[in-house]
Write a structure and sequence with these properties.
This protein is of the alpha/beta class. 49% of the residues lie in helices and 17% in strands. It has 11 helices and 10 strands. The strands form 2 sheets. It has a 6-stranded mixed sheet with strand order 1-2-3-5-7-10, with helices on both faces. A 4-stranded mixed sheet has the order 4-6-8-9. Strand 1 and strand 2 (10-15) form a beta hairpin. Helix 1 packs parallel to helix 3 and helix 3 (72-91) runs parallel beside helix 4. The protein is globular.
């Protein structure tokens, strides 16, 4: 099941199947897609945090028992559903944060990679072990891992299927920071609350611009950044932000 809690503009989405290490079966993945769609369109939500229920796993991957019965058409549909979830995390017009509290393997690692920021407990583990099942990552892992960590790292993890710890994940740039398990929720919450206090228009523009950085034409991307920058000067948030800076007070973004 998927649990969603929301407070002060921060929505926490929890994949809650701890007995199955939060592995994603069809009902759970479908519900995750539906909840992410709702949160993407909810103006009251300014930041989305994705995490796992219990202490052992973030998302241990896709449900292998379910996948073992798929034919080519079924696998295509299953892959598209996973891509829908990852695409929502990557492109919704608000920051998304992965709070990786344990195992993030296969599809779990892929969904973490789709988030804008990734923070891990020191006990977390990461990997794309699909090759050990005679398949490959199917929810964007080959592409996002290469973009996040470089081609060499992506080939190492995808071709060997090896699992790495949080310290190695930090060293290769897979995560932004590593915290003690008891501190992860609090530290992620601090970052989420800080982001929720910023202009949602500016955050959306910044996210879209940075997402363009590793794709398309460089000159066109620079022009796109310039256009987004200029366009924000038509907003109340821009006027409030600059006025607050000049007046030495906290801004109140709407």
């Amino acid at each position: 099941m998927i649990r969603v809690t929301s407070e002060d503009g921060v929505a926490v989405v929890t994949v809650d199947r701890p007995d199955a290490l939060n592995a994603l079966d069809l009902p759970t993945l479908t519900e995750l897609r539906d909840r992410l769609l709702e949160l993407s369109a909810d103006d009251a939500v300014r930041v989305v945090v994705l995490t796992g229920g219990g202490e052992r796993a973030f998302i241990a991957g896709a449900d292998i028992k379910y996948m073992s019965g798929l034919d080519v058409a079924g696998a295509q549909a299953w892959g598209e559903l996973g891509h829908d979830c990852a695409r929502l995390l990557e492109t919704m017009p608000k920051p998304t944060i992965a709070a990786v509290n344990g195992l993030a393997l296969g599809g779990g690692c892929e969904l973490a990679l789709a988030c804008d920021l990734r923070y891990a407990a020191r006990t977390a583990k990461f990997g794309q072990p699909e090759v050990n099942l005679a398949v490959i990552p199917g929810w964007g892992g080959t592409q996002r891992l290469a973009r996040a960590c470089g081609l060499g790292v992506a080939k190492d993890l995808v071709l060997t299927g090896r699992v790495i710890d949080a310290e190695e994940a930090l060293r290769i740039g897979l995560v932004n920071a590593v915290y003690e398990p008891g501190e992860l929720t609090e530290r992620v919450g601090e970052t989420a609350r800080a982001l929720s206090g910023k202009s949602p228009l500016a955050l959306a523009a910044a996210k879209a611009a940075v997402n363009d950085a590793l794709q398309g034409d460089h000159a066109e991307n620079l022009a796109g950044e310039a256009g987004r920058f200029a366009g924000l000067f038509a907003s109340e948030d821009q006027r409030e932000g600059m006025a607050a800076f000049i007046e030495k007070r906290e801004p109140r973004f709407s």
